[in-house]
Amino acid sequence: MATCPTMDPRYRVLSEAQELASEYEVLSNRVRILILAGVVALGKAKWNEIREIIERYEGRINPNTLSFHLKKLIQAGLIVREGSMESPRYVPNISEDIAKKIEKLVNEIRKELEAGEND
Q1: Alpha-carbon span 26 to 17, nearest angstrom
Q2: Residue closest to 94 by CA, chosen among 103, 85, 86
Q3: Do residues 110 and 41 lie in contact, with contact meaning Cβ atoms separated by under 8 Å?
Q4: Is-contact 23 97, C-beta < 8 A?
Q5: What does the pLDDT profile of the chain (119 residues) look like in tens digits?
Q6: What is the enclosing helix (H) or strand (E) of 80?
Q7: Letter string b/e over residues 34-56, b meaning 16 or more CB atoms within 10 A of that residue's CB
Q8: Beta strand pairing status for 88-92 and 79-83?
Q9: Computed over its alpha carbons, how large is the radius of gyration of the chain?
């Protein structure tokens, strides 16, 4: 039996990301919102963990594209890069306003990550 599109977690995540993208200029791209929400969901994230989250929802992403969008978020101050050049970690640095706006998206991603761990 087919799942109703609005019940599909992937659909909900992509819809929420698109809605936020239209509200904030630096977050005017759905991939950037997914990156930010993924980093918030994890607390601290490695590059590969971010890539895995993006690819879970968007499909395969070119590493250069991911790096471009991650750099935009760092330049905007929404993500901070910590650690060594060889093994950086990315940490969210967002206002309460943005945290509230992405809360549903972060919760959906967390649920998906937890479900993936239990598989």
Answers
A1: 13
A2: 103
A3: yes
A4: no
A5: 455 656 777 888 888 777 776 667 777 888 999 999 999 999 999 999 999 999 999 999 999 999 999 999 999 899 999 999 899 999 999 989 899 989 999 999 999 888 877 66
A6: strand 79-83
A7: bbbbbbbbbeebebebbbebbeb
A8: antiparallel
A9: 14
Contact 37, 94 (CB under 8 A): no
Phi and psi (nearest 5°) for 110? -60, -45
Cα distance between residue 56 and residue 60, in whole Å: 8
Q: Where are the domains of the chain?
A: 9-113
Closest CA to 56 of 97, 96, 114: 114
Q: Which CATH architecture has domain 9-113?
A: Orthogonal Bundle (1.10)
Put residue 43 in one of left, alpha, beta given phi > 0 → left and psi -120 to 50 → alpha: left
Token digits of residue 116: 């993936």
